[in-house]
Write a structure and sequence with these properties.
Blueprint (H helix, E strand, L loop, with lengths): L6 E2 L9 E3 L23 H5 L4 H8 L5 E3 L2 H7 L7 E3 L1 H7 L4 E6 L10 H13 L4 E6 L3 H13 L2 E7 H6 L1 H9 L3 E5 L5 H9 L7 H14 L3 E3 L6 H20 L6 E5 L4 H15 L6 E7 L4 H4 L1 E6 L8 E6 L21 H8 L4 E5 L1 H15 L5 H20 L4 E6 L7 H8 L10 H9 L5
Parallel strand pairs: 5-15, 6-7, 6-9, 7-8, 10-11, 10-15, 11-14
Antiparallel strand pairs: 1-4, 2-3, 4-5, 12-13
The structure holds pyridoxal-5'-phosphate.
Amino acid sequence: MNNIPYKIYLDEAELPKQWYNLRADMKNKPAPLLNPATLQPMTAQELSGVFCEELVKQELDETTPYIDIPQEIQDYYKTFRPSPLMRAYNLEKALDTPAKIYYKFEGNNTSGSHKLNSAIAQAYYAKQQGLKGVTTETGAGQWGTALSMACAYLGLDCKVYMVKVSYEQKPFRREVMRTYGASVVPSPSMDTAVGRKILQEHPGTGGSLGCAISEAVEVATSIPGYRYVLGSVLNQVLLHQSVIGLEAKTALDKYGIKADIVIGCAGGGSNLGGLIAPFVGEKLRGEADYRILAVEPASCPSFTRGKFAYDFCDTGMICPLAKMYTLGSGFIPAPNHAGGLRFHGMSTTLSQLYHDGLMEATAVEQTAVFAAAEQFARIEGILPAPESSHAIKATIDEALRCKETGEEKTILFGLTGTGYFDMYAYEAFHDGQMTDYIPTDEDLAPGFATLPKV
Ligand SMILES: *Cc1c(COP(=O)(O)O)cnc(C)c1O
């Protein structure tokens, strides 16, 4: 049947009007966030000191399956959604595989990634609460960009703590954020107590996401009228990202297509959690079965080599404890790691699903990821983000397996964004300067040693 178009678009009327909250269908709920001081579950009141009230409600809601998307957010979504569901005919042909490959492409907005789906929601609720602004961290810069766009649109102040190595390597990202009115500070900075402490202990450090989170939280909780927002990991972010999966499911259903395998890259887990949500929902309710595959970097292997334990989400150890697959908040990725997805932990929801055997995970090495990225760019045209390319690599591997076995599997993967700001990494790959690094057990030990005893 060849009447399936290269691009499957939805009409505006078919766009989701509600987010889907996967936790409502989970028998084993993700473990609650704990207050690090008392080791008791964080209450809504405690969380409201850091996060916006409505977002706290969403964070703690594990029973409501569908949550209405406010009209203003739906209207903003319409400026860049639906994102296309692409049939990778050209890639299938090049691989000579009987597999049918689809990808949901989230890179068609200025932030260049899926992050805008949650940024606009979080900024909207901050505005509703009458706040002046929000603070956040950004690593590679996609989240900071998305949040700057959302804040500019709604007239909120936006303070971004950007991991110092990225700040220096990606000046253009920084300028995009400033174009949208955000202030961007390299982290660790001298602005915060936690930044000064980290700089004293590790002079010359290039920073880390965990450290930038600590700084952003400290600032949000010390200036009146500000709250902290986070671009991944949290349940609320997975909830907002469910638009990816809901749209993909509607588009596939329209053509009577049933996916066999759903593949996504996993950093903190938000795009993957959003993409797989309606599919895992069917799986949990016993309506259909899918293979779900998370793909992570071999140099930051939270799922495949991490421990399922309570841990801090930040280096400064001021954030609540989350039970997740983690390498320890003290884990620092190798300096040659170029492909993003470098957070030490993982969404608690995805961690629980993985623990319960409802999804699988695999780790891939970065030179193979960039080789897959380049192959994909040449065949499909889109220049993929290094993060997204982890999913491309795993998809190509699956498709080649289908070629060997003759199985006509239908694969859906998440192409989370574009890689225009990652040209130093591409350059290293092209010049043969990129190396792989798989940490030894000894290399991982210091990170595990920072796990709190809970
Ligand atoms: C942030 C980002 C990711 C990883 O984050 P998740 O929360 O795991 O989805 C993946 N791809 C792109 C393009 C990103 O910007």
